[in-house]
Amino acid sequence: MRPSTLRALKRAAELTRQNRFTEAVLVAEPVLLTADLQESAEIRGWLIGHAAEFVAERETR
After folding, report:
1. pTM (2 decimals)?
2. Terminal-to-terminal C-alpha distance of the chain
3. Nearest residue to 38 (alpha-carbon basis) of 11, 1, 10, 4
4. Which is the most buried residue in 6, 9, 32, 36, by most CB within 10 A?
5. What pLDDT digit, counting tens, does each position of 2-34 carry?
């Protein structure tokens, strides 16, 4: 996976955790649409591996 793709995915994940889903989609969509078959498979694996993090609530203690 290209470093720029990974950065975009990580940023989109952070935005998702902040309940800023629309912004997350705007960040991730370009890399998802331009990925080739190999990178798409890597992105899919990354998303599956990190899915729980996207929806995890931060502890507020």
Report:
1. 0.80
2. 36
3. 1
4. 9
5. 999 999 999 999 998 898 999 999 999 999 999
